[in-house]
Automatic annotation (TrEMBL):
It comes from the Bacteria. PROSITE patterns: GATASE_TYPE_1 (PS51273), GMPS_ATP_PPASE (PS51553). It catalyses: XMP + L-glutamine + ATP + H2O = GMP + L-glutamate + AMP + diphosphate + 2 H(+). This is GMP synthase [glutamine-hydrolyzing]. Pathway: Purine metabolism; GMP biosynthesis; GMP from XMP (L-Gln route): step 1/1. Keywords: ATP-binding, Glutamine amidotransferase, GMP biosynthesis, Ligase, Nucleotide-binding, Purine biosynthesis.
Length: 548
């Protein structure tokens, strides 16, 4: 047992603490409830028609330092107007406008005088709703395609007469609505871009948000700065100011308790809240026994050295393991861990008197992926959808509208050390979602040792900061091997190393063979119970980064 665990044991044994049922209903807030930010900065609304790149559009806008919000396509017009957006972007989507029940926005959107840019399905919908013609020709265009520009265009200004763009569509606009001019074509698409300068309506069949459209960012910048006249004011300094102010407004003179995980998200969250309410914030770090090798000590040490925050350490190892006994379903694991977290926070909050707020480092992609109406639910993230229905603390989630790269930039600006800013993401449910099947102390220890080796080798190869995540997985199967002259029947370990910009998509890392070889041989030699190592070469999609 380590020193911090011993100290925690002496402090109290929370294992049998009775959970008091409380009645204050506090469900996860809707994204739309948290739109106070927009009043203070130029906003672009992205309407999501279920396209795979919808979130990417919102990110690209933020990369131009303009605030963007991703909303469902059927958000009532009045709500959109209330946000006072400087522009609206209609995303792509898998539907065909010609099919009954296809997702549609309110057609009055085009008469608000607010510039609108339709992308792919968004262009087709704009054409369809305004009297143009959309046809399913049977010829689909997919991938890199040459675009030929046709005449003057505010949206495409600065581009060459021919440019590469990224296409992914089956339907095409064959006749634009009246008032529109065709501004670009491809060999098989007669309307690759169109615009009605007078009404400030623009559409492109290709995807400017995808990097393969080489001048895509220039097109988005034309829309944001030339057409919508946005100011680029969404930078780390203003995010810090706006967020701090929002926290002060929400928490008032109250006290808050913050869940620290050791990652950049919760550290950044804690610093922001500390900035807003000072010592009325207490941070709680729970060791749920599902952490990586010596992680608990490292986190406590880093936070005490760098953050000087009020830190409470809770040793919940036995408690979590007991609840996970016999559980094999990944969603059930997440639900149990999420619930247990919240119960611990509630108990800690009761110890610090008058705490009304629970601070969490939830990010925008977690919110989106945990179920906007249009994105299919893939997994519940334990800090969003896994929350129990009944809890007695109000949530404060300052990063709820930020993407990871924005969080890192803010964290840097707040002075967090590189060891925290650059730390790889680690799921809240920890190693539990990297052990397929039941989580037992033996399996945890085995995975922890293998994972330590993966991390050590990635670091010693100088690749840690170049990859998004690098870790080990314990698939719950065993296979035959031979050691010495003995037959073995032991676990395989899967190594997972991925590159990604935002975890929404990811590619497996082409690690040099010597690095893989060293990891594999060390794992098989040093970790008892392992006789095989495999490398996961799946990308996301169709896989996910984690195995569960
Ligand atoms: P997937 O496996 O969905 O992971 O491709 C995307 C990113 O999210 C992390 N992840 C989680 N983080 N709670 C978290 O806080 C979770 O339940 C969870 N599941 C996945 C994962 O490590 C990756 O960075």
């Amino acid at each position: 047992m380590t020193d911090i665990h011993k100290a925690a044991e002496i402090k109290k044994d929370t294992e049998n603490t009775e959970i008091k049922k409380v009645t204050g209903m506090s469900k996860v807030k809707d994204i739309n409830e948290e739109i106070s930010i927009e009043r203070e900065t130029d906003t672009i609304v992205v309407l999501d028609f279920g396209g795979q790149y919808s979130q990417l559009i919102a990110r690209r806008v933020r990369e131009c330092q303009v605030y963007s919000l991703l909303l469902s396509y059927d958000t009532p017009l009045a709500e959109i107007v209330k946000l006072r957006p400087k522009g609206i972007i209609l995303s792509g989507g898998p539907a065909s406008v010609q099919v009954e029940g296809a997702p549609k926005c309110d057609p009055h959107l085009f008469g608000l005088g607010i510039p609108v840019l339709g992308i792919c399905y968004g262009l087709q919908l704009m054409a369809h709703l305004l009297g143009g013609k959309v046809t399913t020709s049977g010829i689909s265009e997919y991938g890199k395609t040459e675009l030929s520009l046709d005449g003057e265009s505010s949206l495409l200004q600065g581009l060459n007469a021919r440019e590469d763009c990224w296409m992914s569509h089956r339907d095409s606009v064959t006749s634009p609505p009246s008032g529109f001019r065709i501004t670009a074509r491809t060999l098989s698409t007669p309307v690759a871009a169109m615009e009605d300068e007078k009404r400030k309506l623009y559409g492109v069949q290709f995807h400017p948000e995808v990097r393969h459209t080489l001048r895509g960012m220039d097109i988005l910048k034309n829309f944001l700065f030339e057409i919508c006249k946005c100011l680029s004011s969404w930078d780390p300094a203003s995010i810090i100011e706006i967020t701090t102010e929002a926290i002060r407004r929400q928490v008032g003179a109250g006290r808050a308790i913050c869940a620290l995980s050791g990652g950049v998200d919760s550290a950044c969250t804690a610093l922001l809240v500390h900035r807003a309410i000072g010592d009325r914030l207490s941070c709680v770090f729970v060791d749920h026994g599902l952490l990586r090798y010596r992680e608990a000590e490292q986190v406590v040490d880093a936070f005490q050295r760098h953050l000087r925050l009020n830190l409470i350490f809770v040793d919940g190892r036995r408690r979590f393991l007991a609840r996970l006994q016999g559980v094999v379903d990944p969603e059930e694991k997440r639900r149990i861990i999420g619930e247990e977290f919240i119960r611990i926070f509630e108990e800690e909050a009761r110890n610090i008197r008058d705490v009304r707020f629970l601070v969490q480092g939830t990010l925008y992609p977690d919110v989106i992926e945990s179920g906007t109406r249009d994105a299919a639910r893939i997994k519940s993230h334990h800090n969003v959808a896994g929350l129990p229905e009944i809890m007695d603390l109000e949530l404060v989630e300052p990063l709820r509208l930020l993407f990871k790269d924005e969080v890192r930039a803010v964290a840097q600006k707040l002075g967090l050390p590189e060891e925290i800013v650059g730390r790889h993401p680690f799921p809240g449910p920890g190693l539990a979602v990297r052990i397929i099947g039941e989580v037992t102390p033996e399996r945890l220890e085995l995975l922890r040792q293998a994972d330590r080796i993966v991390e050590e080798e990635i670091k010693s190869a100088g690749l840690y900061s170049q990859v998004w995540q690098a870790f080990a997985v314990l698939p719950g199967i065993r296979s035959v091997g031979v050691m010495g002259d003995e037959r073995t029947y032991a676990y395989p370990i899967a190594i997972r190393v991925v590159e990604s910009e935002d975890a929404m998509t990811a590619d497996w890392s082409r690690l040099p063979y010597p690095v893989l070889e060293k990891m594999a041989s060390r794992i098989m030699n040093e970790v008892e119970g392992v006789n095989r190592v495999v490398y996961d070469i799946s990308s996301k999609p169709p896989s996910t980064i984690e195995w569960e």
